[in-house]
Predict the 3D structure of the following.
Amino acid sequence: MRQLSAVAAVGLVLACPVWVWWVIGPLDADFDDLDYYIRPPELPPGLEPALGITGIAVAVVCGLVLVVATCLEWFDWRWWQVIGPLVLAGMGTGYGWRILTAGGIGANIGAGFVMFFGVPALVATLVWALVRSVLLVRQTHRHRS
């Protein structure tokens, strides 16, 4: 059950930026000649909704697996201290990507905010998750010894 929980945790963390990116949708201005901070990739028709719906489905299934495993004590609840911040970071990344790739006229002020506030917040969250993961692994090894 430990492997299934690990796969579900990874699936949840990876699916969240995708479904948030899809739900937000393009943020382009209603003009013809748009400027881009980062030009969005051109996706084949139908791929964007397929990715979004798949992301939602994966997130829901993985989240349910983790909640059930936690309730049945097959999954150590302390790992939610790692998964939760990573899910929030992924959601912020999906939203931030839409802002960075939004077409506009002139300066993209939102992109500046994402770079100034979002990137440091993302780095801090990743450092938190890494440190908390290391501490949890050490605690687990001490308990087994």
